Backbone:
């Protein structure tokens, strides 16, 4: 398996802990007073109530992991969710979930060694992962309600990086990633609004970000778009055929990537 570039660090510019709180607040603001039976098109079969419960459950589960300072993969995901009596209490419950997470962050040094399913085996992994779980589902809610949605460019760049750094480790819950193999084939994801791109290499033994940092290396396929659009593309919220993207190169390789990189 290729070694993901950046697996031993996270970008210093983003305060993931503070951003979790900010994204949760935006999520709650979007759904306050909304009909929680509204379907969420980007999460087939889910309503807004399902989306809220999922987002808050993730925050509370990650908080349990942080508070326990776990050193190996847990065998149970049981956690006291403290769910409200009815769905109309879910927005306030999500706010409370973010507070539970904030308390866990405050009690746990970011650089504390911990088990994590991804590349970075420190407590900070969970804050970063929680941030993008929350952010993407905030966008899901806004789209479902027809609310204009935006993602800060700096956050989006960090989110694409987080996704690609951790994807090689996700096979236990994203089994399609095990099919991401190739004879030294490469895909470049390039931002049009930030000085950042990522080169992913598929090799016979696995895949991962190119660790050389060579941004001018040739690629077999390239996808260019804004950082926010690339983040939503990575999470399957946009299609590469959307006019917001410039796509070049091996279409078969891209089809293989997007068919098996679902997170």
Residues:
């Amino acid at each position: 398996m290729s070694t993901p570039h950046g697996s031993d660090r996270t970008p210093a510019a983003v305060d993931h802990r503070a951003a979790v709180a900010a994204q949760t607040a935006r999520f709650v603001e979007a759904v306050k007073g909304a009909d929680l039976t509204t379907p969420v098109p980007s999460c087939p079969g889910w309503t807004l109530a399902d989306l809220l419960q999922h987002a808050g459950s993730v925050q509370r589960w990650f908080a349990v992991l942080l508070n326990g300072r776990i050193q190996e993969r847990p065998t149970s995901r049981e956690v006291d969710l403290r769910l409200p009596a009815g769905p109309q209490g879910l927005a306030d419950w999500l706010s409370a979930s973010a507070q539970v997470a904030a308390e866990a962050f405050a009690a746990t040094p970011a650089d504390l060694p911990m088990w994590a399913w991804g590349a970075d085996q420190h407590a900070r992994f969970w804050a970063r992962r929680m941030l993008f779980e929350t952010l993407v589902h905030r966008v899901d809610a806004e789209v479902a309600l027809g609310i204009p949605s935006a993602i800060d460019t700096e956050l989006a760049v960090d989110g694409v990086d987080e996704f690609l750094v951790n994807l090689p480790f996700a096979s236990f819950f994203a089994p399609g990633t095990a099919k991401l193999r190739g004879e030294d084939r490469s895909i470049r994801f390039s931002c049009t609004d930030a000085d950042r791109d990522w080169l992913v290499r598929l090799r016979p033994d696995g895949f991962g970000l190119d660790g050389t940092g060579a941004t001018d290396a040739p690629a077999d396929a390239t996808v260019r778009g804004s950082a926010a659009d690339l983040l939503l593309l990575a999470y399957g919220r946009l299609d590469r055929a959307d006019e917001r993207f410039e796509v070049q190169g091996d279409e078969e390789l891209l089809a293989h990537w997007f068919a098996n990189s679902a997170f």
Notes: The chain has two domains: 16-149, 157-260. The longest strand covers residues 185-191. Residues 48-68 form the longest helix (21 residues).
